[in-house]
Amino acid sequence: MKILLVEDDARTADFILKGLQQSGFTTVHAATGPDGLFKAETAACDLAIVDIMLPGMDGFTLISKLRAAGNSMPVIVLSARSSVNDKVRALQEGGDDYLVKPFSFTELVARVQALLRRAGGSSEPSTLSVGDLSIDLLARKVYRGGERIDIQPLEFSLLEFLVRNKGRVVTKTMIMEHVWEYNFDPQTNIVETRMCRLREKVDKPFQEKLIHTVRGFGYVVETEADFRHR
User: Fold this and answer.
1) Where a domain ends, among 73, 94, 120?
2) Domain boundary among 99, 120, 141
3) 98-133 pLDDT tens trace
4) What is the per-residue pLDDT across 148-205, written as a single tens digit (0 to 9) for each?
5) How many domains does the chain have?
């Protein structure tokens, strides 16, 4: 999936682009409104993230021009402007979602994925799986090789996040934001502690390991065969 980011602040753009790339997306960047409109029309993107305050053309106008040209690509407006009027106008011009800065990157990715699912006509799955591990999202139960695994609610949330991102490396910061909902403190080992407990239940009793450490980056859930071929 290819994401277009239209953002003029260099630091913000760099942060978002790196995060999207680590989450498995291809990215295109534009730093001005006119360039954003040009790339939206020519780069065959699947979704756009658009700031409001842009040089040359504001985000409202950019979105309006896209819709007038018949471009139905989903658009998330990402802006420091938090008034109801701004949100209403963004949606009236053709935006699909609105996220206020500062924001959680995990939430941004979740909104991107939700809009892409809707655009593709797919619904939210009721189960997730990797290898012989399956998660029943409705009953909130975990099975491995058909055998029920008893895990705590926080462990369930952690495992669900990992499996939703199977095959992708997730950083400690991403885990902290999603599972604990606060910014990562490099002095704490809470992620390592919880991951150790989760592995005791999900991996240790079984021959194949599914939760892997990618040193210097984070963790990934995938079969041992896929992990060996990284």
Assistant:
1) 120
2) 120
3) 999 988 888 898 899 889 888 876 555 678 999 999
4) 999 988 899 899 989 989 999 998 888 877 776 554 455 568 889 999 999 999 999 9
5) 2
Specify the DSSP class assigned to residue 52: S
Q: Are 95 and 87 in contact (CB under 8 A)?
A: no
Nearest one of 24, 23, 26 to 5, comparing CA atoms: 26
Residue 192 is part of which domain span? 127-228
Residue with the two structure tokens 């682009």: 17
Distance CA 183, CA 161 (A): 17
How many other CB atoms sit within 10 Å of the CB of residue 147? 10
Helices (H), 3-121: 10-22, 33-42, 59-68, 84-93, 105-120
Q: For residue 63, which phi and psi values (nearest 5 degrees)?
A: -65, -45
Q: What is the pTM of this model?
A: 0.57
Any idea what DSSP says for residue 31? Answer: S
Q: What is the CATH number of the domain that holds 47?
A: 3.40.50.2300
SS3 174: helix
Cα–Cα distance between 53 and 80 in angstroms, integer? 9
| 37 close to 67: Cβ distance less than 8 angstroms | no
What's the CATH number where 185 sits? 1.10.10.10
158 class by beta-carbon count within 10 Å (0-12 exposed, 13-18 middle, 19+ buried): buried
